[in-house]
Amino acid sequence: MENEGKELNIPQCFSGAAQLLLYTRYDDPRIAGWEQKWITEWNVQLVHPWFPERTIKIHKHFWPLFNDALTELELLGLDSEIKSCDSTFSIVHYADSPVLSVHSWGVAIDMNAADNPVGSAGKWSEDFIAVMMRHGIYCGQNWTGNKEPMHFAMVDG
Ligand SMILES: [Zn+2]
User: Fold this and answer.
1) How far apart are CA 117 and CA 13, in angstroms?
2) CA of 102 to the centre of ligand 1 (A)
3) Ligand 1 centre and the CA of 118: distance in Å?
4) What residue spans of the chain are helical by DSSP H?
5) Cα–Cα distance measured from residue 62 to residue 105, given in angstroms and rounded to the nearest whole number
6) 0.70 exceeded by the pTM?
7) Number of other CB atoms surrounding residue 155 within 10 Å
8) What domains does the chain contain, in order, with CATH numbers?
9) CA angle 150, 151, 155 (to 5 degrees)
10) pLDDT at 49 over 80
């Protein structure tokens, strides 16, 4: 993989597997007009009045997955686990790294950050994460190594 990367001359900011996938599908989120093309401001509370944030900025291909997941969480009574929505779409780099966070594409949402800090084991129930997974949403609580349990995304990274 490392050699392939060098041959293709992938910019460092896209050097993670998830970043490369997103860059290939959706291009560089920093280019002019990108946000207008791919990001929608979704009024979550119109459909899920219990959600802690009224509107969120989210990728147009992520919101249907997230919407379906919220609907199923609600049906199973697991929506009560969501206490806060802390970060959605924003162009950000990881600390001390040139790699862009997948939040830069609007395909990730951090929730309950206070209960689920980076490096902690995470407090989501297995049932909660199973619902997310059924809808194609990965959780940083399942990562090996340095976990980021607040983090949910349509790519595993
Ligand atoms: Zn995150």
Assistant:
1) 24
2) 8
3) 9
4) 2-8, 17-26, 34-38, 44-47, 63-75, 126-134
5) 10
6) yes
7) 20
8) 2-153 (3.30.1380)
9) 165
10) yes
Cα–Cα dist 95/69, whole Å: 30
Query: Phi and psi for 108 in degrees, rounded to 5?
Result: -140, 150
Q: Which helix (H) or strand (E) holds 2?
A: helix 2-8
Q: Tell me the pLDDT tens digit for each residue of 73-95.
A: 999 999 999 999 999 999 887 77
One-letter amino acid of 103? H
For residue 106, the CA-to-ligand 1 centroid distance in Å is: 10
The DSSP bridge pattern shows strands 108-111 and 148-153 to be antiparallel
Is pLDDT of 119 > 90? yes
Confidence of residue 129 (pLDDT cuts 50, 70, 90): very high
Q: Region 40-47: what's the mean pLDDT?
A: 98
pLDDT for 53:
97
Give the number of residues written for the chain.
Answer: 157
Ligand 1 centroid to residue 136 C-alpha, Å:
16
Please give the structure tokens belonging to residue 60.
């147009």
